[in-house]
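Q: Here's a chain of 183 amino acids. Please give me its 3D structure as tokens.
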Amino acid sequence: MTITIILIGALISLVFYYLWTLKSNYDYFKRRNIPGPPPKLFFGHYLSIWSTLSFNRQIPEWTRKYGSLYGIFQGTRPIYVASDVDFLQEVFIKQFSLFHSRPMNFLVRMLKSNAPGLASAHGNQWRRQRHVINPTFTTVKLKMMTPLMNKCIRSLMNKIDEKIDNEFNIFTLYKRLTMDVMC
């Protein structure tokens, strides 16, 4: 009887400790004075995002409400959402070598092969790949490529206009566009 009471007490204590830890984890952004929508216990903002019409509508709504830098939770993991162009330029261009250990996306984790590309690489491997690829995407080179990409996109739009009255596979057209732009 005494052991049962002790075990039940220990179990209740563990549950309360877990809930307290979870709750304090959700205070991550509050402790840093970063605004954001209030998370739901266990789910973070998954329910808010999936219950709305579109993720692409929810994020701009939160951006209008909380500003260009705010925090949300992917389950229990804190995620910064930034829409300030200057901040993003600082992080992704000027200080990109400091931001190489991003959490791996579920889909990327599923598709990851033994030779990961830039999207799924981490740490020094990502830093090395980014260093090699970076000179290819300078502003001058991208501006030189823009007319060629626009030509490919106009061609795609013409093909869509031709097929607009019938059912067609847009995926095939997008694959062709991707190959045209890359080659």
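Q: Can you summarize the key feature?
A: Strands lie at 69-74, 77-82.
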